[in-house]
Give the backbone structure.
Amino acid sequence: MTKEMSVAVTDGLVAKLGIEMEEVTAQRVSAVMPVAGNTQPDGFLHGGATCSLIETLASIGAAVVAGWPEKVVMGQAQSTSFLSTATSGSVRGVATPIRTGRTTHLWNVDVTDAETGKIVASGRVTMAVRERRS
Amino acid sequence: MTKEMSVAVTDGLVAKLGIEMEEVTAQRVSAVMPVAGNTQPDGFLHGGATCSLIETLASIGAAVVAGWPEKVVMGQAQSTSFLSTATSGSVRGVATPIRTGRTTHLWNVDVTDAETGKIVASGRVTMAVRERRS
Amino acid sequence: MTKEMSVAVTDGLVAKLGIEMEEVTAQRVSAVMPVAGNTQPDGFLHGGATCSLIETLASIGAAVVAGWPEKVVMGQAQSTSFLSTATSGSVRGVATPIRTGRTTHLWNVDVTDAETGKIVASGRVTMAVRERRS
Amino acid sequence: MTKEMSVAVTDGLVAKLGIEMEEVTAQRVSAVMPVAGNTQPDGFLHGGATCSLIETLASIGAAVVAGWPEKVVMGQAQSTSFLSTATSGSVRGVATPIRTGRTTHLWNVDVTDAETGKIVASGRVTMAVRERRS
């Protein structure tokens, strides 16, 4: 991750959710996110927070592979299965590319309990790659 | 929406995103969410914020239909297409039930630009309905 | 549906599944498909047959809107929920456009029991529109 | 795969598509399917055939793990990305479990060109496991 990208992602929704990047390469992007503050009324991790972590990691992976900021990457679709719940601690998301074409990418993102490693969710994100309009 | 539910949803992720409920019935749940503060590095509405709005509305709809808090509703899957971008103002999400079975619901949620009405995203959420363990 | 398209779709997988087109316009594409012969080992309509009906209808709709055969339309993704089962008779699929952009479409396809009208499945198909290479 | 299951899957849609099972274990289910006869009007492998292969493999995997025929497994949802096209030869699908719970499974199925190994599609199938009603 370039310094420019590093600064960019520490703003907006990512900061609000407390997502902290761990590893950023073209083959693997990982981050952790706390459960506290990202819950729904019954105290479980909000599925939307999980989707946000997934979208963030796939986007950063796509940005690295496509060459941001010259290229812009936009989420086109996300399809995620919620497999277990989390009520405390933090979760870890790991994004890996399934296919990185010139105009479209498909990334897989698995989310696990950061302490136990138990799978919490698994999602797929389709990213569109576009030229940046100056 | 009962007062109990109303209080419950104004905590956690929902509050953080600035989601404000508009209408809550068994047939239609709507809310608005600001774009500002929920963006990704290029200034567009973060897809994860959109997913969070979608998950929230489907969950509240399922809670109303199933009879929360006696029943607990949990997201099982979300599949969302991002159709256009938003960079300012706010977006409106409207959830409607496709099928509400005893143990599983499927809800559709369309997200539009709150000012222009242009479609921003369309998602499907599968919700599991469970008895609350005392 | 042009005569050319009409002939084209009566070949390959569509013929094998017994899909019979009913209505083809830019706003609505419908067809019926028999359950018999399209089942899985327990005698239920095979989910793959349902997906095939959904993919077919969305593709024909996209072809009509995009202007096939000058343009080629290719399925990019399908996301379908199976909501009830069918063991006899036939099912009807109805495709309607959610968004038809220049290079990408999103179509919704609902599948119902052709006799009772009960919903059997609901799916979303993302179609890519490309120029035909001569 | 038990002999009973082996006989069962050689009927209905599976036979029509020419799907031939290769390996069936609780950890991996694979099969090949010819492109010829399973195409859409432009001569490409029909996305519905791809979905059918994916649904079949996930279902057989779920049936093996859950203990068919005492248990019945039903597809609840499929979400598939079509990543490249195939116009001849055959494709291979390989299903692997992501999570196999008591009442719900999530399976991943990758489809590749059987000759070149190039990825054609990648899908997720959610399976519901139920007791068989006598």
User: Anything to note?
Assistant: The domain at 3-131 of chain A is CATH 3.10.129.10 (Thiol Ester Dehydrase; Chain A).
